[in-house]
Amino acid sequence: MSLALFLATPLLSILRNSSVRLPSLAPAKKKMTQPAALSGVKICIVGSGVCGSSAAFHLSRLQDVSISVFDCGRGPGGRTATRFSRSLPGVSFNHGTPFFAAQCDEATEVLERMVERQLGLGRYEGRRMVLDASSGEMRDAPDEGPQYVGSPHMNSWCEAMLSSNPRITQTYSKTLVEITYDPAKREFSLRDDEDGVYAGFGVVLLTSVATGEERGLSFDLDPSLRRLGASLRKEGVPSDVDRLVNAMAKVRSDKTQTLMLAYPTEAAVPFDCLMVENDPILSKIVILPRQQGLLCLVAHCTRGYANQFTHLAPPTSVPGKEYKPPEELAGTLRERTEGVLRRVMPSAELPAPVMCQLQQWGAAFAVEGPEEARGDGCLWDGCIGLGVGGDFCGE
């Protein structure tokens, strides 16, 4: 089996959830033999979301390989992330997806095994309801089968995968901005935004949302794949990077915003997750377990509302996107959220929050992607050992 297929086969996109599309791993249907080319290889994985974490987990089963995982965030999880509050020590928010479900039986088997073995994953048992913002009608949400959530925190299952093997090392708070390739050594080097250099990698798998050109530009990042391709062409090095560049240029994403709120109140909320219909701004409200006596929740805005804005302040601009300061966006979403809470809990007292923090997700939903990646696990350049994977590979 080729190295390309070995990497691509397990990286099947098998998850969906009510907030973002997520890629993960399905068990191989046939036992795979380790390619000889991977013996002794250093593997670099950029991004520690579901795709990056599960790739590291599966590849760490190979003999005589070392895996380095890099992420610009403070910890793993990607959109299954957990935000630990600095202003309220000990309080945390699952500020990305609130829960997720499997798309196929194979995925369900994988997730159920993780639940049984207590590998950072549990069943989501919260009460899900739907509010029609136009009529005010509330009803139970339809049963969509098993829902899963990280335990004790949303990012715990990614932590479990990355901590499963001592040959996986993790580096956080590093944004990798440049990739270079040495054809003589057949090795990659990567540079971060503080000029730190990480070298000697025989295989690189990019899973970061900033990999795609349009996504990268939305984060004010120069597309590193394009510059790598130009460099290899100039040096006459055979590669397939330009195909990856062209494919990633097709990736388009919807944005979203989430607002983390903590209220000093004992008020009982009649739902755990409220999906809001017919509201141009508010999409859902997710109630978290009570912490330090606080009512903690995360409000999600609609895609249509989020897509109007860019989080890049002037003079940086994104065509067709309006910039609003985070505090203004937070105020709008807070007002909408509190309006709904007062509507469904008319007798409850809702004091001012002790925490109100906005998170803008610049690439929350992959809505378009290269057809050649659909249902695979990654796009692969077998000439130099470079792969690109992520939510755009979904079915």
Automatic annotation (TrEMBL):
Matches recorded under SUPFAM superfamilies: FAD/NAD(P)-binding domain
Leader sequence segment: 1-19
InterPro entries per UniProt: FAD/NAD-bd_sf
Keywords: Signal
PANTHER family: FAD/NAD(P)-BINDING OXIDOREDUCTASE FAMILY PROTEIN, FAD_NAD(P)-BINDING OXIDOREDUCTASE FAMILY PROTEIN
Name this polypeptide is given: Amine oxidase domain-containing protein
Organism: Vitrella brassicaformis
